[in-house]
């Protein structure tokens, strides 16, 4: 008989390199529009002042977010896998706690984008039979992610599905 699945704080933190990965994502996301505004400001004389002001304001907000948010996200994001369920907590202001019982898991995937590969990280995506969709555990060491995907595959392979 399987144990009881209940809402509780997941125990595992993400890999510490996730902070650098998030910071790099935020810097890239900020740099592209700042660069576009800067180039437009250099090319369009009549609008130069306002374009450069917008670029500077966007750069300031982007740098502030880059300095603060990744550390905050790291403190909040948690995950755990038991024999009964996958537990994930994400979000900073609006926290989302998700539980996927093993019997509801349909597929398990690992994804490593170019930036994740640079930081030796990976994302495990757990697709469930739920209208809410997938559960993503981002910011895992790539070896931990591979082992987790293998473990989930083994557990779900031996777990009878829900009879609905």
Any overview of this molecule?
The chain has 164 residues and is an alpha+beta fold. It is 47% helix and 24% strand. The protein has four helices and seven strands. The chain has helices at residues 17-43, 48-76, 114-118, 142-157; strands at 12-13, 78-81, 85-90, 96-101, 105-111, 121-128, 135-141. It has a four-stranded antiparallel sheet with strand order 1-2-3-4. A three-stranded antiparallel sheet has the order 5-6-7. Helix 1 runs antiparallel to helix 2. The radius of gyration is 20 Å and the shape is elongated. It starts with 11 loop residues before the first strand and ends in a 7-residue tail after the last helix. The model has no long low-confidence stretch (mean pLDDT 91).
């Amino acid at each position: 008989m399987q144990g009881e699945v209940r809402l509780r704080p997941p125990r595992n933190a993400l890999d510490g390199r996730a902070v650098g990965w998030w910071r790099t994502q935020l810097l890239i996301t900020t740099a592209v529009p700042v660069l576009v505004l800067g180039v437009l400001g250099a090319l369009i004389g009549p609008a130069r002042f306002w374009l450069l002001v917008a670029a500077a304001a966007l750069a300031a907000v982007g740098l502030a977010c880059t300095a603060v948010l990744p550390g905050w996200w790291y403190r909040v994001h948690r995950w755990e896998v038991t024999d009964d369920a996958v537990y994930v907590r994400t979000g900073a202001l609006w926290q989302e706690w998700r539980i996927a019982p093993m019997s509801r898991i349909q597929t398990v995937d690992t994804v490593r984008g170019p930036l994740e590969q640079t930081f030796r990280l990976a994302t495990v995506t757990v697709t469930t039979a739920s209208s809410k969709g997938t559960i993503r555990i981002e910011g895992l060491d790539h070896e931990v992610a591979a082992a987790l995907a293998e473990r989930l595959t083994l557990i779900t392979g031996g777990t009878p599905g829900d009879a609905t």
